[in-house]
Design goal:
With 299 residues, this protein is of the alpha/beta class. The chain contains eight helices and 20 strands.
Length: 299
């Protein structure tokens, strides 16, 4: 095939639309775990003033890519090997494929807090991961931010712009934070609660109580988690592609990694983790992938 896309999230499917419309033979390998599928409703997608769920967005993108001839199939790519004559040998289950160009759009997985019922709470929009995406929806509400280890203080300060009632929860873990950052939280009116959590309770559309060890209860309208993301960049770094300290791939202006012919777009790439950014990167990558190959013969 001309192009193989690994990952069927917004980046991978957008690239598939572009490449299929460039009249390229393109296959998308869908691992079935796009972060976008967890979005209950996104209100910052341009052109959807009433919001759109992640599943609905992915369904539309799959339909659009298939409409132009892109092949989308479930599976997991377990290895890429550059071929001396050009392109890559691709290990897919028990099969071995060949692709002239490969786009890695595998994204990442949010590190989930170890709490009972957290996945259901995410689906219901009670536990969130992206204040850039949806902090607007919690204006003036009681909000908590789960953070321990290397705390991302900027996320706390970003949320503080939307609510005066903000608490950092460490779940009893160590919060590695310099004194000046702790002072910044204090000066912003953000409290830090270090007590371990025994369980949470949900009523309707609200997290009504976090039951702490010792008996205290705290109620919140929404919870954000800032425990980081596991970037799925191993296929590229195994070939020598450069990545930052978090594992996000470093690419050039055309979204190409340091491995010739291997491109990357979306959350697997260093930068702002947003659907609009992912689709823009995918358009850039697909356009350059097309230009880097001999143009198809006219019909």
């Amino acid at each position: 095939m001309d192009c193989l896309i690994i990952g069927a999230g917004p980046a991978g499917l957008t690239a598939a639309v572009y490449l299929a419309r460039f009249r390229r033979s393109v296959t998308v390998i869908d691992g079935g775990s796009s972060r976008a599928s967890w979005i209950p409703v996104s209100h910052n997608l341009v052109g959807f003033p009433h919001g759109l769920s992640g599943e609905a967005l992915l369904a539309r993108l799959r339909e659009q890519a298939a409409q132009y001839g892109a092949v989308i199939e479930p599976g997991e790519v377990t290895g890429l090997t550059p071929v001396e004559a050009g392109g890559f040998a691709v290990a897919l289950g028990g099969r071995r494929l060949h692709a002239e160009r490969v786009l890695l759009a595998t994204g990442g997985l949010d590190v989930e807090p170890e709490l009972p019922g957290v996945r259901d709470a995410v689906r219901r929009g009670l536990v969130r991961y992206c204040p850039i995406c949806d902090a607007y929806e919690v204006i003036g509400k009681a909000v908590a931010l789960i953070a321990f280890g290397r705390c991302r203080i900027k996320e706390a300060l970003l949320l503080r712009a939307y609510t005066a009632d903000l608490t950092v929860l460490t779940l009893g873990q160590t919060l590695n934070m310099p004194d000046e950052e702790r002072r910044a939280l204090h000066e912003a009116g953000i409290s830090v609660l270090d007590t371990p959590v025994e369980r949470l309770a949900v009523e309707g559309d609200r997290i009504v109580a976090w039951h702490m060890q010792g008996g205290a209860q705290h109620s919140f309208d929404s919870i954000y988690s800032a425990l980081g993301t596991r970037i799925r960049s191993g296929l590229a770094t195994a070939l020598g592609a450069a990545a930052d300290a978090d594992g996000a791939l470093i690419v050039d202006a055309h979204q190409e990694t340091g491995v010739p012919g291997l491109f990357a777009a979306g959350d697997v790439v260093r930068g702002l983790s947003q659907i609009s950014v992912a689709t823009g990167q995918a358009a850039i990558a697909a356009t350059h992938m097309n230009r880097s190959l001999p143009f198809p013969k006219p019909p």
